């Protein structure tokens, strides 16, 4: 998928998608992603198995993450270069949003 | 007191994924348990009596699951009960807050969309079969015996298509659940 298509597809992205992509800056498997997101958000977001499975599938199909190892059918994933680029672009968008929202607080 | 309960056509009586899950949950809370789901479970389910339990069930249609599909659910503590065609059924006991396998609106919508697509394919197949059969009445002369069989088949195809159309509407109306 070309870059423009990826941008249109992923930016803006859902909170679930953002945190899964964010978690995969380090190698993690499905359950470890859920634990990491739970810890990051202080328990506010507890990802379900179905959500993790389907989001991983979408991200892998589009080349934003890749499987790096497999043990007993349990795969470990890591963000790709394209995934990193999308994640950083989304982070910049959220930072801009925050900058404007800050005056309301 | 009976120790078994047989329910006929559960898959046709609870056609919306969330309704099917809630029905199994209610059965479990009343002490009726099912430990194995098979290809025939949409036609008949046999429940055994036991202690009432709080179980969360998941109805997840996956036509071509990846290799790690079951591993991910199992890691999250879900118990695999089996599958009816492409529908995987999972169960997990809970105490306080009800568990969710689909934790955001997007994945709930996707799950229901997958189910809707599967039903739609069957709907259009039966509709097409009825159309082809209906057209054959005009393109060739049928003997009285053949005509009776063709009319019967046409009525059957139309009835199934109408049922599937109704199922599609029900799933569509509850696509956010």
In terms of per-residue confidence, which ranges of chain B show pLDDT below 50 for 5 or more consecutive residues? none
Q: What CATH architecture of chain A do you see?
A: Orthogonal Bundle
Q: How confident is the prediction overall: mean pLDDT of chain B?
A: 93
Radius of gyration of chain B: 20 Å
Q: Would you state the CATH class of chain A?
A: Mainly Alpha
Task: Assess the beta-strand content of chain A as a share of residues.
Answer: 5-15%
* Physical arrangement of strands within the biggest beta sheet of chain B: 1-3-2
Shape of chain B: elongated
Principal-axis shape of chain A: globular
Biggest sheet of chain A, strands in spatial order?
1-3-2
Total tally of structural domains of chain B: 2
> How many separate helices of chain B?
5
Largest sheet descriptor of chain B: 3 strands, antiparallel
Task: Please mark out the parts of chain A with pLDDT under 50 across 5 or more consecutive residues, or reply none.
Answer: none
> Largest interface by residue count?
A-B, 25 and 24 residues
Q: Please indicate the count of domains of chain A.
A: 1
Helix content of chain B: 40-55%
Element-level helix/strand string of chain A: HHEHHEEH
Instruction: Give the assembly state of these chains.
Output: heterodimer
Note the beta-strand portion of chain B: 15-25%
Describe this structure in words.
The complex is a heterodimer of chains A (105) and B (177). Chain A has 105 residues and is of the alpha+beta class. Chain A has a single domain (3-104), classed as Arc Repressor Mutant, subunit A. Chain A has 5 helices and 3 strands. Chain A has helices at 3-10, 15-23, 30-40, 49-61, 81-101; strands spanning 28-29, 65-71, 74-79. In chain A, strands 1-3-2 form a 3-stranded antiparallel β-sheet. In chain A, 31% of the residues are buried. In chain B, helix 4 packs antiparallel against helix 5. In chain B, a hairpin with a 2-residue loop joins strand 5 (79-84) and strand 6. In chain B, the strands form 2 sheets. Chain B has a 3-stranded antiparallel β-sheet with strand order 1-3-2. In chain B, strands 4-6-5 form a 3-stranded antiparallel β-sheet. Chain B is an alpha+beta fold. Chain B has 2 domains: 4-93, no CATH class; 105-173. Chain B has helices spanning 10-13, 17-29, 69-75, 105-139, 144-173; strands at 4-8, 32-33, 44-49, 55-61, 79-84, 87-93. Chain B has 5 helices and 6 strands; from the N terminus they run E-H-H-E-E-E-H-E-E-H-H. The A-B interface holds A 14-16, 29-31, 34, 45-57, 70, 72-75 and B 58, 60, 66-73, 75-76, 78, 90, 99-104, 106-107, 110-111.
């Amino acid at each position: 998928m070309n870059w423009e298509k990826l941008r249109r597809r992923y930016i803006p992205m859902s909170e679930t998608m953002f945190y899964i992509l964010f978690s995969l800056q380090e190698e993690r498997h499905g359950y470890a992603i859920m634990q990491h997101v739970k810890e990051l958000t202080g328990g506010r977001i507890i990802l379900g198995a179905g959500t993790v499975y389907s989001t991983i599938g979408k991200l892998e199909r589009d080349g934003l993450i890749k499987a790096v190892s497999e043990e007993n059918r349990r795969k470990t994933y890591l963000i790709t270069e394209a995934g990193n680029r999308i994640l950083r672009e989304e982070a910049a968008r959220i930072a801009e949003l925050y900058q404007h929202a800050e005056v309301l607080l | 007191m009976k120790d078994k309960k047989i329910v006929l056509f559960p898959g046709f009586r609870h056609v919306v994924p969330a309704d099917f899950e809630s029905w199994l949950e209610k059965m479990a809370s009343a002490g009726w348990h099912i430990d194995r789901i098979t290809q025939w479970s949409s036609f008949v389910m046999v429940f055994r009596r036991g202690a009432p339990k709080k179980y969360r069930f998941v109805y997840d249609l996956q036509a071509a699951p990846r290799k790690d599909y079951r591993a991910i659910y199992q890691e999250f503590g879900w118990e695999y009960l089996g599958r009816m065609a492409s529908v995987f059924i999972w169960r997990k006991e809970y105490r306080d807050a009800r568990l969710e396998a689909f934790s955001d609106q997007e994945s709930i919508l996707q799950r229901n969309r997958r189910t809707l697509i599967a039903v739609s394919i069957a709907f259009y197949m039966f509709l097409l079969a009825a159309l082809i059969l209906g057209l054959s009445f005009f393109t060739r002369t049928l003997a009285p015996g053949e005509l009776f069989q063709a009319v019967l088949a046409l009525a059957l195809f139309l009835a199934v298509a109408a049922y599937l159309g109704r199922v599609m509407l029900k799933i569509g109306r509850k696509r956010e659940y």
